[in-house]
Structure of Glutamate decarboxylase:
Amino acid sequence: MVLSKIASQSDVSVHSTFASRYVRESFPRYKMPENSIPKEAAFQIINDELMLDGKPRLNLASFVTTWMEPECDKLIMDSINKNYVDMDEYPVTTELQILLLALDAFSKNLKVHAYDALLFFSSSLTIEVRKLKFDFSAKGPPSPMNRCVNIIAHLFNAPLGESEAAVGVGTVGSSEAIMLAGLAFKRKWQNKRKAEGKPHDKPNIVTGANVQVCWEKFARYFEVELKEVKLSEDYYVMDPVKAVEMVDENTICVAAILGSTLNGEFEDVKLLNDLLVEKNKITGWDTPIHVDAASGGFIAPFLWPELEWDFRLPLVKSINVSGHKYGLVYAGVGWVIWRSKEDLPEELIFHINYLGTDQPTFTLNFSKGSSQIIAQYYQLIRLGYEGYRNVMENCHENAMMLKEGLEKTGRFKIVSKDIGVPVVAFSLKNKSWGHDEFEIAETLRRFGWIVPAYTMPADAKHITVLRVVIREDFSRTLAERLVHDITRVLHELDSLPAKLSSAKISVKQEENGKINGTVEGKNGTTVVIKKTATETQREITIYWKNFVTAKKSSRNKIC
């Protein structure tokens, strides 16, 4: 007797995913489905949606690394299932920094690739490393990432003796690093105020209005007043003079930015330090400085080593840097370094032993993957000082080439600086053109480019800019292509009607009846200037109020 199955009853594993029912059924997005589906179908469904994402290397809005060498990609995948906090279970990963001195010499003397050196050590020394006992007492930092922390501390000119270990910790990024640094400043300030018998319930921190949102999060989450120095047109970083004027006895620190998110500019940390030293002498305070070097920390030491912004300045007590930005590692790693162990209050460090050994911890989260830490090790020993300098020089030169190309169009004003993060920020010169920076950004997406447009913070909100972040994988060829495509966009917009010109309504202010929010565009068309959401809502309300009033008047009018 012949047995047979109809197609709908057959084993789904023999079918192509696209021949199965799973591609013609809609799956719940916000609830767990009742039944399982084949792994091939699950992969295809997710992969199909991910195809709609932009290409990471063409995302010029992000500072985060989007390319690493294949050898490092393999190391990342090989360690993706290791939890970094399990020191006793993963001793090679945990103590990799102890091996790096020998590893560095090993890879240089035998002239082998850093990837091969890492594999050699991790496979042959596992048993030996398990036998070692490591001291995390006051002599060492509160972090198991001793070697990497020391490399970065020396890069930032920390005042360390020959055998003295640096104080620092690895984090999931600069946001966590800033939270930890801020907590250290707050606790140290509170301890001092308590010892002096003074109020300690109203701490504040002084920053520029250009700080990244993580500073606002720190202030709100940990109940610290954020005192912001407002920006002004053509000056888009914190003014050190104004910052020091805002400092009072409750200021736990002044935060300076080495590489503003808005335009890549370095703030003048040296001037800030000098002014604050003088104020501290006069007032008797000891207000310190934290440097947010998330973007610039891996740039300044290689391009401008003579620039004083780091621990060479006496009031700089801590520095954070993002390994996943110009540290050249994929997203998920940052670092915070303290000047000395006295700048990190001991009571903030916890000790646990339920993972198999006593270990100190000073982080906001606990578990995290090992792969990004290993990737940072790889880059440090693979590239060395020479390699990092070459990468940063390439980024800077490509940024200058892009800047020159944009200037040649005659249409843009450059608002970024030559000394700073390799960022090119620019705005339109002609504000009555009829099109704006947001339209340029939107049109560039049709060519695959993701270029953000945004307004500046308080007191400079009328300025809109476009920003291109030059990363390691942004080549001269791509820079030339971007200039070409921006030029095409400008010509295309030239041929189109002015933005919102079809709207014939000119909104009037109720108070004085004057026309507000419009300018004359090409061919006499009315161009509406972009307003805030509050202003727009107010004007819509006024317009409809006037419209309804006019209707009522005409309806009651006697002919």
Notes: The radius of gyration is 29 Å. Residues 97-144, 501-515, 555-559 have pLDDT under 50 and may be disordered. DSSP finds 16 helices and 15 strands in the chain.
